[in-house]
Amino acid sequence: MNLGNPFLFVSQLEFGAFIQTDINLSDRLLVSPGLRYQIQNHLRDYNNFDPRMSLSYQINKSTILRLGAGVFHQNFSIGNYLQLQQLNGVNQTEIVIRNPLFPDPFAVGIAQTIPASLRIMSKSLVATYTNNLSGSVEKSLNSRSTISIAYDYIRGNHLFRSRNINAPLAPDFLVRPDPAQGNIYQLESSGLSTFNGLTLGYSTRLRNNAGLYLSYTFSANYNDTDGPFSLPANNYDLRSEWGRSPDNEKHHLQAGLSGFLPGSVFVNTRLRLYSGHPYNITTGYDNFNDGVTNARPDGLARNSVEGPGFFDDTITVSKTIPLLKSKAFVPDGARGDGESGGRGGRGRRSSRGDNPRATTTATPYIYIQNAFNHRNFNNPSGVMTSPFFGQSTTAQAPRMVELGVRFNF
After folding, report:
1. Is 223 exposed, middle or buried (0-12, 13-18, 19+ CB in 10 A)?
2. pLDDT digit string, tens, across residues 42-60
3. The whole model's pTM is what?
């Protein structure tokens, strides 16, 4: 339970500067070096320099090689700072009651109140940053079709995570380092992550200016934190937290088709299919007596099981109608490619950009999400003591149909 004043005012100052230039070393080779610097007032971290470099080389008339590398710092959000200040033991305190007598006052057991919990910031907290490396080769098969292969590597450093520095000590997990204090959740920047992704792509222009694209990504994403205020299963064994990221999608397939039907009716379809997200199996008990029930069974790694896959298909049908007469009118989305579209009228706005005389248009549209009404279940319950263990009790949105009109003045 939280006690205290829920109202709090905080502020944050952020500063960033960026410089970049393009250098043509030859007719085929373009190099773009850059440097960014950023600081903020809530972190004692002032060496946030981000060097970056990209390279584009035309191997021949139909093949282009692109490489990129750089460092990217992320700001410590004001929302994180707000939560730290809110539960700092002064504005609000968090009280944990073990074995409560409510909601059943006749339950067997003795209620135990642990001293108030609080959140603190590590004195060595620094900004999160990533090392990014990417490379791609794109080849034109003809005037209409292109294939590509791309590789991305991202390493996350100093990721934010929390740890209870006053959790009961091993081996019996009964005595705290400071018995007079309750849980002390310290925000640290000690997390790591890695991402490796290989993407194959194909796009082509069909008849009547229709576009088709296909994209497949095989990836592996690992980390040891689920967010700034996520807690490990064992606060004294952080190495065991390394595992698959909860948003890892090992296989990801995406396809799209767009074009015009007779009568200047624009149709855009998109299909997405990807493998399930990993999730945890937990005992459902407070194995370490720290007030948190996220302990895993012995020998079971974090996010060791995988949930159900996902399938989604969207269809957009729209038609742009000029409301004011114009000698030359280009329908909205007439030059959209296979990856354009979305909800009605979200193609390229060529009616205004390329032809200012077509000033007023109306675009009625129909947008269908999950057109085949496929049941996409969320991850099952991983709590072993739950009666729904191993079962999915929620699902993502069913078929949704949206009708609308967009006016463009």
Report:
1. buried
2. 998 999 999 999 999 999 9
3. 0.84
